[in-house]
Amino acid sequence: MKKRVYRFFLDYEQEEAWVNNMAEQGWHLKRTMLGYFIFEKGEPGQYIYRNELVKNKNQDYFEFLETMDIEFISKFGGWAYYRKQKSKGPFELFSDSSSKIQYLKSISRLFISITFLNLLFGFINLNIGLGESTESFLNTGISLLNFVVVMIMCIQIYKVERRKIGLQRELHIFEG
Amino acid sequence: MTQEHPPLTEGVYYILLALFDARHGYGIMQLVEEMSNGRVRLGAGTIYGAIKTLLERGWIEALGGDGRKKEYIITDSGKKVIEYEILRLRELFDNGIRITKDDGTNG
Fold it and tell me: Which of A51, A104, A109, B104 is the most exposed place for a label (fewest CB within 10 A)?
C-alpha cells in the first residue's frame, strides 16, 4: 500500500522529523520530489530516517554509507534521504561538533547563494517591471516572488547560523 | 591553539588507533564502539570526513580494494601523531591524579 503526500517544508530539520514521525506510524519514505512524498506501508518504527545536503558528494560517499548499513532512499535537488534499521542501533550522520559545524557551513553557503541570486533577479525584474513596456507587469510580479524567497531564505540562514553558533560555543569547553 | 601538536579529537584518536590494523569504515565504527564500551558511536559522515582529511595529511593510507571494500591503514607519521597524543593524555592523566589526590578531601 502506498501513500502520496504533498507537503512543503521550509525547514529541512522539521521535514526530517515529520518523515520519522511517519515511519513511526508505519509509513516508510520511498521517494521525494520538491514537496511530494511517496510512502510505503510497513512495520511501524522499523527505520530511522536522515536527510542530508549532498551537493558536492560523489558516488564514493554513497557506497561508503552503504557499507555502514545505511540505505540510500531518494535524492532530489541536492538533498538525499537515507534510512537505517532501528534494530541496528542509533543513526546520526555526524557525531561530533566539528563535523556538524562543517555540515552547517555547507548548508549556509547554499542558502546564502540562493538569497543573493534572488536578490539580484528581484532587482532586475523590478527594474524591467517599472519600465515603460506594457508587458512589464509580469516582471513586477516575479520580482515580488524573488523578494519573498529572499525573506524566507534569510529566516532559514538565521536558524542555521544559530545552530552553528550554539555548537561553536560548546567547542570552547567540550571537545566533541 | 599554537601548540606544535594540537590535541586530536576523540573521534580522530580512536580512528587512528583502529587503523593499526587494516580496516574499512564499518570495521572502524565497530571497533571504536567496542573499545569505548558503546560510549563513542561515530557517525558515518563524520568517519568519511575524517578519513578524507587523514589521507590528505598522510597519517593513513588506502590499501587496494574497490570502492565498497576499500581498507585503510595508519602510516608512520600517523603513528608519530598517536605517540605524541598518548604522551599528552598521560600528562593530563598524571596531573589530574596527582592534584586530586593531594587535595585531601578524598581521604
Answer: B104
Residue from B29, B37, B48, B71 whose CB has the most chain A CBs within 10 Å, to mutate: B48
Do both A80 and A6 map to the same domain? yes
Note down the domain range covering A120: 97-171
Q: A163: burial class by Cβ within 10 Å (0-12, 13-18, 19+)?
A: middle
Instruction: Tell me: pLDDT of B65 over 50.
Output: yes
- B1 has pLDDT over 50: no
- pLDDT tens digits for range A117-163: 999 999 998 888 887 766 677 888 899 999 999 999 999 999 999 99
**Domain formed by B10-102, architecture:** Orthogonal Bundle (1.10)
Q: Is the domain of A111 the same as that of A163?
A: yes
Q: Does B20 touch chain A (CB under 8 A)?
A: no
Whether A79 has its CB under 8 Å from any CB of chain B: the answer is no
Q: Residues A10-19: what's their mean pLDDT?
A: 94
Is residue A13 located within the same domain as residue A78? yes
Distances (CA, A) of A36 to A4, A8, A156: 7, 8, 20
pLDDT > 90 fraction of chain A, expressed in percent and rounded? 76
Q: Which residue has the cell 532586475?
A: A124
